[in-house]
Amino acid sequence: MATSVEILGREMRRLRLCEYHRMVEAGVFEEDEGVELLEGVIVRMSPQNADHALVVERLNDPPFVELPAEYVIRCQLPLSLSEADEPEPDIAVLERGTPRSRRAQPTTARLVFEVSGESLRKDREVKGPLYARAGVPEYVIVNLVEECLEVHREPDTASGRYRSLSTLDKGATFVSGSVPGLKVSVARLLA
């Protein structure tokens, strides 16, 4: 990936993850400022309306999403995917044994959900390729605009694209291909 980007005819330098972490540790950002590092650029996260918040809450609720014991849900927490990318997905499902510590974020997930209203374009065009390049096996956009799930599978790490995309409407049930036993009724999720 390029270390600089041209914006308005001027070359801008991209940040590396270690630099971003130093900025966070130095208190450059307010605690609740809501930013993430995407392609070496600090990006503000969209504010959450009630619809977004309810869907995230449901996806994080063990009685709503029956998750096998060998997996854990991380809700709106960072994933260090590369030297220039640390998104904070709405939901990331990790194998319980995935390395993490008080000093380092996980570097992978089995499944990622992004709940998308006004962030739909960013979640499709920026975050989707990040997750594919990182080899995340399954990426689901909960599309609040069209009231459906966009299920991306089979990441091509070289191209940053998913080879498979299916759309599930309210009459369908999402059955994960990467987390055995995880399934969610689209109608219940979007009710």
Would you mind describing this structure in some detail?
- With 191 residues, this protein is an alpha+beta fold.
- The protein has a single domain, classed as Alpha-Beta Complex (tt1808, chain A).
- Helix content is 19%, strand content 32%.
- Strands 5-6-7-8-9-10 form a 6-stranded mixed beta sheet. It has a two-stranded antiparallel sheet with strand order 1-2.
- It is globular, with a radius of gyration of 17 Å.
- The termini are far apart.
- The model has no long low-confidence stretch (mean pLDDT 91).
Order of helices and strands: EEHEEHEEEHEEEEEH
How would you classify the helix and strand content by structural class?
A: alpha+beta
Largest sheet: 6 strands, mixed
Count of discrete structural domains: 1
Major sheet: arrangement of strands: 5-6-7-8-9-10
CATH architecture: Alpha-Beta Complex
Low-confidence region ranges: none
Sheet-strand content, in percent, reads: 25-35%
| Total of DSSP H or I helical runs spanning 4+ residues | 4
The CATH topology is tt1808, chain A
Q: CATH homologous superfamily - what is it? A: tt1808, chain A
Shape: globular
Helix % is 10-25%
Mean pLDDT: 91
Secondary structure: number of strands? 12
CATH class: Alpha Beta
* End-to-end separation: 40 Å
